[in-house]
Amino acid sequence: xxxxxxxxxxxxxxxxxxxxxxxxxxxxxxxxxxxxxxxxxxxxxxxxxxxxxxxxxxxxxxxxxxxxxxxxxxxxxxxxxxxxxxxxxxxxxxxxxxxxxxxxxxxxxxxxxxxxxxxxxxxxxxxxxxxxxxxxxxxxxxxxxxxxxxxxxxxxxxxxxxxxxxxxxxxxxxxxxxxxxxxxxxxxxxxxxxxxxxxxxxxxxxxxxxxxxxxxxxxxxxxxxxxxxxxxxxxxxxxxxxxxxxxxxxxxxxxxxxxxxxxxxxxxxxxxxxxxxxxxxxxxxxxxxxxxxxxxxxxxxxxxxxxxxxxxxxxxxxxxxxxxxxxxxxxxxxxxxxxxxxxxxxxxxxxxxxxxxxxxx
Length: 361
Prior knowledge:
The protein is an alpha/beta fold. It has ten helices and twelve strands. The protein has three domains: 5-112, Response regulator (Rossmann fold, 3-Layer(aba) Sandwich); 136-205; 214-359, 2-Layer Sandwich (Heat Shock Protein 90), CATH 3.30.565.10. The strands form three sheets. A five-stranded parallel sheet has the order 2-1-3-4-5, sandwiched between helices.
């Protein structure tokens, strides 16, 4: 959603008609959206209750209701609306107090400077627009998380049922039936992996996932990851080498760091041709530990590298990144949650080096 000044609603309230008329003319001349002007706070509130409002400008001293009380009522109706108070010098202290009490965006002393007022309105509208975007993004993320959670149960049920067919629990199968069911099982497993990745991303972004840090030997974790992908390596006749690494312990969430390592290794296997080589390195120094997974794969075009760790990145010109667009993004979330860094070095047709660093003990 691009910011378009004309799409926003402004309300101006002042008990003096000449003030509201002048402000309406000023905004029209400067190509701002035509404001809704009121000389009565109660009439303005009635309008505000029934409409989406992005910015409200109110005078401070009005006989029916002072500006601060009026803006308090506006805040109850619309949480994200930007509020601006016009005040005389004598009311300056009250205006300052209202910044915290009401969530006032700005106050402007009378007589105000027109340029200052226009800039204040423009910035205020941009603020409301940004807050709206944040709310929409949160609603979208909450929806995705809820949907992903609800998908897990039927997926798990389908996977278990397919396994019963394939292991002979429900009777023997013809070879063709076996092949079709294996394809269905893999598809359901892939979907479950995507659902789990979505939920993990949501937990990190919403701050719901707490790291469980402990001391463990990094080399042991690397060897465990290597054993778990042995069948994939054999399929492509790939060599995976763990370079000489000290048996030093690191302090991190072992489960989450394993997720990053497994993602790096899985991507390397996927994008390295037959008979290629994958190497794992770890460099311990006084400030940090740098872990690298290097492959002899197809490499990544330079223009695509900045996209790799973004959410839902759908690959590169050479289809080098993960298919879901979540694996590397989640890896970035995990590493940054450890106060570390993640990056990649690559050359087309010469391979890639995916790296992350963690603070030293």
